[in-house]
């Protein structure tokens, strides 16, 4: 699901870690050149202020990269409507963990803050006659990228605050279901006919030192099968096979097995008893959750269970109002669709029959929220 559209520019938002963001801009309304210094800051009131979508890429939190955008034509869909698209890096699980990833989310949103005055971004936008409106942001997470998007949506310390959140076949909406805590038949989720397996590579990657963090592992084909260039996608498969994803998310060996042995309703309290930090890192919903949430999931998804999205839908229904107003939760469970709205049982890379309609509905929702 890598987009063929080239970003307008790629900027560094975290110089210490060299984390970058791809920026996709609408067509320029002026014939300008990037400015520098104080001059660009003085002109902000003269520029057209645009909303933006912050997109966190798929890859099970262990692979993928910022060019892996869903849907692949999202840049065109948004920029044609006058919406900026940001696709930032974030540190991938192992050797990084949940805390590292959420730090990257905080740092990216801080980069967008008007108080930080990121001159490279301001200069890029102003050359096209634009400025960012930080009061109109939607965060979108696809698959594993939903954990980062959920972090932006629920953590009150993230600023500027998004006004909308899209969970697209999202991972991380309920880490305490059996799906994550118990061993799984991965050949159903990842058929060997479609996915390249390399358990030895996964074991090699598990030996990485903390300093050897990664922010990208591009998807590719090996002998016609889905794989990633560094082989990090194998981590997702062995963690799901062994039921230990949570162990690696929280860097807590044996945690999944401990929780799996008790009934689902008791797992959250047990988690807090083991370590008070753990529940926070599972990102429980809070009053900070935006008033507008969109849930998209293939009804036949075998990689990220639709139960994740149904758990989110239920929890949002129990959350109550947002600043005195009813939360608007839109839900689209696409029938006959697998992970990423793929067509079950058809040619590799084909989308399900309801894909086009689902993408149109999602685009319309984003445009409406950001209007």
UniProtKB/TrEMBL annotation:
Which terms does the record give in the GO molecular function aspect? Answer: hydrolase activity
Key word Hydrolase present in the record?
A: yes
The superkingdom listed in its UniProt entry is: Eukaryota
Please provide the record's keywords in A-Z order: Hydrolase
Sorted alphabetically, which SUPFAM superfamilies does this protein's record hold?
alpha/beta-Hydrolases (SSF53474)
Q: Which InterPro entries match?
A: AB_hydrolase_fold, GDXG_lipolytic_enzyme
Keyword Hydrolase belongs to the record: yes
PANTHER family cross-referenced by the UniProt entry:
AB HYDROLASE SUPERFAMILY PROTEIN C4A8.06C, ALPHA_BETA HYDROLASE FOLD-3 DOMAIN-CONTAINING PROTEIN
- Name listed for the protein in its UniProt record: Alpha/beta hydrolase fold-3 domain-containing protein
